Fold these 2 entries.
Entry 1:
Amino acid sequence: MKRIVIAISGATGAIYGVRLLEALQLQKSLEVHLVMSPWAEKTIALETRYGIDQVKKMAAHVHDYRNQGAPIASGSFGVDGMVVIPCSMKTLSGIAHGYADNLIGRAADVMLKDRKRLILVPRETPLNEIHLENMLKLTRAGVIMAPPMPAFYNLPTSLDDIINHQISRILDLLNIENQLTRRWGNVYIADDEQKEALNY
Ligand SMILES: Cc1cc2nc3c(=O)[nH]c(=O)nc-3n(C[C@H](O)[C@H](O)[C@H](O)COP(=O)(O)O)c2cc1C
C-alpha cells in the first residue's frame, strides 16, 4: 500500500484538489492522507458545490492543519509522495524556506528531506519576483512545479475538460495510469463543421 499526502491550500482553484481526491478514490492500493488549510476550507465553500465533510470523506485519513504530531509530520511514517493542490504563494513560500509552522509545511519539509516526490500546483497571476525566486529554489530542490495552465490541443469544451486535463497530468507525475483526458498522439482534430458544433 502506497501512502500519499494531498494538501489543499487557500489559492483559488479548490476544485483541482477535490477532483484529484475523487480520481484517487479509484486507486484501491493507495492510502490518501488529506490536510486542508483554514483558507482551503473557505475557498472550497466559496468556489465549489462540495461541503467540507463531503471532501473529507474522499480521503482515508484527514489530519488537522495545526496538528504537528500527525503521522505525516514524521519521515518514519513512510509517505511516498505529496501534492499541494492548489498551492498558494504563502504555502509555497513557507515550503521554499523550510518554515514548517503548520502540517502542510511540515509534511512537505519531510518530503524534501527524505527526497520523496513533492508536486506543487501553484496558483497566482501575475507572478512577482519573490514567487518566481521561490519556485526556482523549490525546483532546484527537486520539487515539481505543475501550475494549472489549460491546454487547448485536446479541444476542451467545458470547464470539466480543463480541470480533468490538469488532474490527468498530476496523476501522470504520480505514475498513476489514467484516461482522464484526450492525449496528444490520439488527439482528434476537429474540422470546421465539428468546431462549429463544439462552439469553437
Ligand atoms: C477566494 C480567494 C482566492 C484566493 N486566491 C489566491 C490565489 O490564487 N493565490 C494565492 O497565492 N493566494 C490566494 N488567496 C489568498 C490566500 O488564501 C492567503 O494568502 C492565505 O493566507 C493562504 O493561506 P494558506 O496557504 O495557509 O491556505 C485567495 C484568497 C481567497 C479568499
Note: The mean pLDDT is 94.
Entry 2:
Amino acid sequence: MKILIIYYTQSGNTQAIAKSIARGAASTGAEVKMMRLKNVTYDMLGEYDLIGFGSPTWKADTPNMHAFIDKMPKQNGTHCFAFNTHGTLPHLYFPIVIPNLKNHGLVPIGYKDWYGDVNMPGMPKPYYTGGHPDEQDFREAEEFGREMAENSPRIHAGETDLIYPDPEMNDKVFEQAMICSNMLLCPTNPQGAFIRDPEKCKYPKCHVCMDNCMMQYIDLSKDPQVFGNRGDRCDDCHECSYCFMLCPFGAIYTEDPKQFERDKGIRHLNFEVMLDRDEAEGKFRRLVPVEEVGFDTPYVYWHPQRPYMKPPKEDDEFT
Ligand SMILES: Cc1cc2nc3c(=O)[nH]c(=O)nc-3n(C[C@H](O)[C@H](O)[C@H](O)COP(=O)(O)O)c2cc1C
Ligand code: SF4
Ligand code: SF4
C-alpha cells in the first residue's frame, strides 16, 4: 500500500504532526512518503492508494492548500484523510475541507486536528495554546496514522462503517463562521499592509521572503521588482505576515506598527470563551495557565531580534 502525506507548514507544527502520522502509517508496513505541498503535482496523485492533506488552520485550510484542492482534477474514489494544527478557533476546518475533498472525487475516511502554538506579530506570547503539539499529541498523531493505514484496506474490503461520519454542523461551527466572516470581510490585512524597503533589502544575497511566500506574490528578480499582492505591498486579507516574520534584515515593515500594540493587554474574549468551552469538553489540554498568557507582550515585543521566525527545515524524513 502506498501513502502520500501532503502538508503545508509555516512555523513547523503541522510538519511535526505530519511526521508522526507518517511514522504511525509506516509502522503498518505501508510505503509512506511525506511531501510539502509546493512539491506535489496532480500527476503524482494517481500513484497512491491513500492521500493525507494537512495544513495549519487559517479560518479553514490555508489559501495554497485550498487552491490546490479547488483546482485538483476529479479523482477516481481514492481514499484520503485530512488533518490540521490550530490555535483557539479550530471548528471551521473540517466542515469546509471534507466536502471539498469529496467534491473532487476523493473518499475521506478520517480526519483529526491538534492544537499548536501560535506565532503572529500582534498575538500574545506566550499564547493560550503554547506547548502544543507535545509528546501526547505526537502519540495521538502516530495512532491516527496507523488507524488510517489499517482502515483503508478494510474499507475497500467492505467495512464501510469505519469511515468517519461527516463533520458535525453544530453551534460552534456557526459561531466560528461568524467570527471568521467578519475578519474576511475586512478588505485588507487586518495587521495593515506589509511593505518592503528596497534600501534595506539585501536581494539577491537574501531571498528568503521570495522562497517562502505561499502565494508566490514575491518576485524580486523582475524589473520592476514585485512584492506582495499589490506589487509594492501585501494587504492580502488572510492575515499572513510570514515574509515580515522571516526577513533577517528588518526590510519588511507594516504601514501601521501600532497595529501590533493595539491588542496589548487586551484579552481576546471570543478566543477565550471558545477555548474554555473546548477545555471543559475535554478537547483542549491547557499547557499555559491563563495568567501566564502574554497579554502585554505581543510576539514582536517578546521576540528579541530579527528574524522573528525561521522557516522549518525542508526535511521529510520521519523514521
Ligand atoms: C495567518 C494565520 C492565521 C491563523 N488563523 C487561525 C484560525 O483561524 N484559527 C486557529 O485556530 N488558528 C489560526 N492560526 C494559528 C495556526 O493555525 C497555528 O499556529 C498552527 O499550529 C500553525 O501551524 P504551522 O506551525 O504548521 O504553520 C493562524 C495562524 C496564522 C499565521
Ligand atoms: S527577506 Fe528581506 S532582505 Fe531578504 S529578500 Fe526579502 S525583503 Fe529582502
Ligand atoms: S504577507 Fe508576505 S508571505 Fe504572506 S502572502 Fe503576503 S507577500 Fe506572501
Note: The chain has two domains: 2-172, 186-263+304-310.
